Here is the input.
Amino acid sequence: MTIDSALLEPTFFLDFEHPTVQRYADDAAGEATDPVEIAQRLFLKVRDGIRYNPYSLAVESEAYKASHIAESESNWCIPKSVLLTACARYKGIPARLGFADVKNHLTSEKLSESMGTDLFAWHGYSELRLHERWIKLSTAFNIGLCEKFGTRVLEFDGEHDALMHPYDQAGRRHMEYVRQRGSYNDLPLTEIFDTFLEVYPNWVKHEDGSFSKQGSGGQNDEAFGQ
Here is the structure.
Protein backbone atom coordinates (compact mmCIF):
# COMPACT_ATOMS: atom_id res chain seq x y z
CA MET A 1 0.00 0.00 0.00
CA THR A 2 1.34 3.42 -0.96
CA ILE A 3 1.27 5.91 1.90
CA ASP A 4 0.25 9.49 1.17
CA SER A 5 3.38 11.60 1.59
CA ALA A 6 1.25 14.20 3.40
CA LEU A 7 1.13 11.83 6.37
CA LEU A 8 4.82 12.51 6.91
CA GLU A 9 4.72 16.28 6.46
CA PRO A 10 4.26 19.12 8.96
CA THR A 11 0.98 21.05 9.08
CA PHE A 12 -0.24 24.12 10.91
CA PHE A 13 -1.04 22.07 14.01
CA LEU A 14 1.42 19.22 13.51
CA ASP A 15 4.34 21.65 13.37
CA PHE A 16 7.17 19.20 13.98
CA GLU A 17 9.63 21.44 12.16
CA HIS A 18 9.58 23.48 15.36
CA PRO A 19 12.64 22.77 17.57
CA THR A 20 10.46 22.34 20.66
CA VAL A 21 8.69 19.37 19.09
CA GLN A 22 11.93 17.92 17.82
CA ARG A 23 13.56 18.13 21.25
CA TYR A 24 10.51 16.52 22.81
CA ALA A 25 10.54 13.63 20.33
CA ASP A 26 14.31 13.14 20.46
CA ASP A 27 14.23 13.04 24.26
CA ALA A 28 11.45 10.45 24.21
CA ALA A 29 12.98 8.22 21.53
CA GLY A 30 16.50 8.27 22.92
CA GLU A 31 18.79 5.92 21.03
CA ALA A 32 15.96 3.80 19.61
CA THR A 33 16.04 3.23 15.84
CA ASP A 34 13.28 0.67 15.34
CA PRO A 35 10.01 2.44 14.39
CA VAL A 36 7.93 0.29 16.75
CA GLU A 37 10.21 0.97 19.70
CA ILE A 38 10.23 4.68 18.85
CA ALA A 39 6.43 4.67 18.73
CA GLN A 40 6.24 2.94 22.10
CA ARG A 41 8.57 5.48 23.69
CA LEU A 42 6.69 8.40 22.19
CA PHE A 43 3.41 6.94 23.41
CA LEU A 44 4.66 6.66 27.01
CA LYS A 45 6.20 10.13 26.93
CA VAL A 46 2.96 11.78 25.87
CA ARG A 47 0.72 9.57 28.01
CA ASP A 48 2.56 10.18 31.28
CA GLY A 49 4.58 13.32 30.61
CA ILE A 50 1.45 15.46 30.26
CA ARG A 51 -1.10 15.06 33.03
CA TYR A 52 -4.68 14.67 31.86
CA ASN A 53 -6.91 17.68 32.57
CA PRO A 54 -10.37 17.96 30.95
CA TYR A 55 -10.75 21.51 32.30
CA SER A 56 -7.80 22.92 30.32
CA LEU A 57 -9.72 23.24 27.06
CA ALA A 58 -8.53 26.34 25.20
CA VAL A 59 -10.34 28.12 22.36
CA GLU A 60 -7.30 29.72 20.66
CA SER A 61 -5.93 27.82 17.68
CA GLU A 62 -2.31 28.40 18.72
CA ALA A 63 -2.92 26.30 21.83
CA TYR A 64 -3.48 23.26 19.61
CA LYS A 65 -0.11 23.38 17.84
CA ALA A 66 2.26 20.59 18.80
CA SER A 67 4.98 23.12 19.65
CA HIS A 68 2.70 24.68 22.25
CA ILE A 69 1.40 21.38 23.62
CA ALA A 70 4.92 20.01 24.12
CA GLU A 71 5.49 22.65 26.80
CA SER A 72 2.27 21.97 28.73
CA GLU A 73 2.19 20.15 32.06
CA SER A 74 -1.44 19.11 31.68
CA ASN A 75 -3.86 18.84 28.77
CA TRP A 76 -6.70 16.77 27.33
CA CYS A 77 -7.10 14.09 24.69
CA ILE A 78 -7.02 16.12 21.47
CA PRO A 79 -3.86 18.16 22.20
CA LYS A 80 -2.05 15.07 23.48
CA SER A 81 -2.98 13.24 20.26
CA VAL A 82 -1.76 16.17 18.17
CA LEU A 83 1.60 16.00 19.93
CA LEU A 84 2.04 12.25 19.53
CA THR A 85 1.07 12.44 15.85
CA ALA A 86 3.51 15.29 15.19
CA CYS A 87 6.34 13.50 16.99
CA ALA A 88 5.69 10.31 15.03
CA ARG A 89 5.88 12.16 11.71
CA TYR A 90 9.10 13.84 12.77
CA LYS A 91 10.54 10.38 13.44
CA GLY A 92 9.51 9.16 10.00
CA ILE A 93 6.41 7.22 11.06
CA PRO A 94 3.31 7.97 8.94
CA ALA A 95 0.67 9.30 11.32
CA ARG A 96 -2.73 10.94 11.36
CA LEU A 97 -5.43 11.94 13.83
CA GLY A 98 -8.50 9.84 14.61
CA PHE A 99 -11.71 10.84 16.37
CA ALA A 100 -14.78 9.25 17.91
CA ASP A 101 -17.66 10.26 20.15
CA VAL A 102 -17.58 8.41 23.46
CA LYS A 103 -19.64 8.11 26.62
CA ASN A 104 -17.68 8.02 29.86
CA HIS A 105 -19.72 6.15 32.44
CA LEU A 106 -17.32 7.16 35.24
CA THR A 107 -17.46 10.91 34.66
CA SER A 108 -17.75 12.95 37.86
CA GLU A 109 -20.85 14.99 38.65
CA LYS A 110 -18.73 18.15 38.50
CA LEU A 111 -17.57 17.46 34.95
CA SER A 112 -20.99 16.29 33.79
CA GLU A 113 -22.60 19.46 35.13
CA SER A 114 -19.92 21.58 33.49
CA MET A 115 -20.50 19.91 30.12
CA GLY A 116 -24.27 19.52 30.34
CA THR A 117 -24.08 15.97 28.91
CA ASP A 118 -22.29 12.65 29.34
CA LEU A 119 -21.29 12.58 25.66
CA PHE A 120 -17.70 13.45 24.82
CA ALA A 121 -17.70 14.55 21.19
CA TRP A 122 -14.52 14.25 19.13
CA HIS A 123 -12.47 12.19 21.56
CA GLY A 124 -9.04 12.27 19.93
CA TYR A 125 -6.38 9.63 19.42
CA SER A 126 -3.42 9.06 17.13
CA GLU A 127 -3.16 6.58 14.27
CA LEU A 128 0.36 5.38 13.46
CA ARG A 129 1.30 3.27 10.44
CA LEU A 130 3.25 0.28 11.76
CA HIS A 131 3.49 -3.32 10.52
CA GLU A 132 1.88 -2.09 7.27
CA ARG A 133 -1.38 -1.26 9.06
CA TRP A 134 -2.87 1.57 11.09
CA ILE A 135 -2.67 1.29 14.87
CA LYS A 136 -4.84 3.53 17.07
CA LEU A 137 -3.31 4.97 20.23
CA SER A 138 -5.01 7.00 22.95
CA THR A 139 -2.65 8.88 25.26
CA ALA A 140 -5.33 10.76 27.20
CA PHE A 141 -5.10 9.27 30.71
CA ASN A 142 -1.73 9.33 32.46
CA ILE A 143 -0.78 6.35 34.61
CA GLY A 144 -0.98 8.25 37.90
CA LEU A 145 -4.58 9.23 37.28
CA CYS A 146 -5.52 5.69 36.29
CA GLU A 147 -3.97 4.24 39.44
CA LYS A 148 -5.73 6.78 41.63
CA PHE A 149 -9.20 5.96 40.28
CA GLY A 150 -8.78 2.24 39.60
CA THR A 151 -9.02 2.59 35.85
CA ARG A 152 -7.06 0.25 33.61
CA VAL A 153 -3.92 1.84 32.19
CA LEU A 154 -3.72 1.91 28.41
CA GLU A 155 -0.59 0.07 27.28
CA PHE A 156 0.86 -0.10 23.77
CA ASP A 157 2.47 -3.49 23.11
CA GLY A 158 3.75 -2.45 19.70
CA GLU A 159 1.22 -4.64 17.87
CA HIS A 160 -2.33 -3.75 18.86
CA ASP A 161 -4.57 -0.71 19.30
CA ALA A 162 -4.47 1.08 22.66
CA LEU A 163 -7.96 2.53 22.94
CA MET A 164 -10.16 3.31 25.93
CA HIS A 165 -11.19 0.29 27.98
CA PRO A 166 -14.91 -0.51 28.23
CA TYR A 167 -14.53 -1.48 31.92
CA ASP A 168 -12.35 -0.40 34.82
CA GLN A 169 -10.38 -2.66 37.16
CA ALA A 170 -13.44 -3.27 39.33
CA GLY A 171 -15.58 -4.27 36.35
CA ARG A 172 -17.54 -1.02 36.27
CA ARG A 173 -18.55 0.22 32.85
CA HIS A 174 -16.13 2.90 31.65
CA MET A 175 -15.76 4.04 28.04
CA GLU A 176 -18.30 3.40 25.30
CA TYR A 177 -17.51 4.34 21.70
CA VAL A 178 -20.77 5.51 20.15
CA ARG A 179 -19.70 7.15 16.87
CA GLN A 180 -16.60 7.11 14.68
CA ARG A 181 -15.73 10.48 13.14
CA GLY A 182 -12.90 9.30 10.93
CA SER A 183 -9.22 10.04 10.30
CA TYR A 184 -7.65 13.40 9.46
CA ASN A 185 -4.34 14.63 8.11
CA ASP A 186 -4.52 17.73 10.32
CA LEU A 187 -6.65 18.88 13.24
CA PRO A 188 -10.18 19.93 12.06
CA LEU A 189 -10.48 22.43 14.90
CA THR A 190 -13.30 24.57 13.48
CA GLU A 191 -15.38 21.47 12.75
CA ILE A 192 -14.75 20.23 16.29
CA PHE A 193 -15.76 23.54 17.84
CA ASP A 194 -18.88 23.72 15.66
CA THR A 195 -19.92 20.34 17.07
CA PHE A 196 -19.22 21.59 20.59
CA LEU A 197 -21.70 24.40 19.92
CA GLU A 198 -24.37 21.79 19.23
CA VAL A 199 -23.49 19.45 22.10
CA TYR A 200 -22.33 21.66 24.98
CA PRO A 201 -24.55 24.47 26.29
CA ASN A 202 -21.66 26.66 27.50
CA TRP A 203 -20.10 27.17 24.05
CA VAL A 204 -20.57 30.40 22.07
CA LYS A 205 -19.56 31.40 18.53
CA HIS A 206 -19.13 35.10 17.85
CA GLU A 207 -19.75 37.14 14.70
CA ASP A 208 -16.03 37.24 13.90
CA GLY A 209 -15.94 33.44 13.84
CA SER A 210 -14.14 33.08 17.16
CA PHE A 211 -15.29 30.77 19.95
CA SER A 212 -15.57 31.13 23.70
CA LYS A 213 -16.91 29.05 26.56
CA GLN A 214 -18.59 30.02 29.77
CA GLY A 215 -16.96 28.74 32.95
CA SER A 216 -13.42 27.50 33.40
CA GLY A 217 -10.95 26.27 35.95
CA GLY A 218 -10.74 23.14 38.03
CA GLN A 219 -8.31 20.26 38.11
CA ASN A 220 -8.46 16.76 36.75
CA ASP A 221 -8.51 15.06 40.16
CA GLU A 222 -12.33 14.93 40.16
CA ALA A 223 -12.56 12.00 37.74
CA PHE A 224 -12.16 11.11 34.13
CA GLY A 225 -13.45 13.05 31.17
CA GLN A 226 -12.42 13.16 27.57
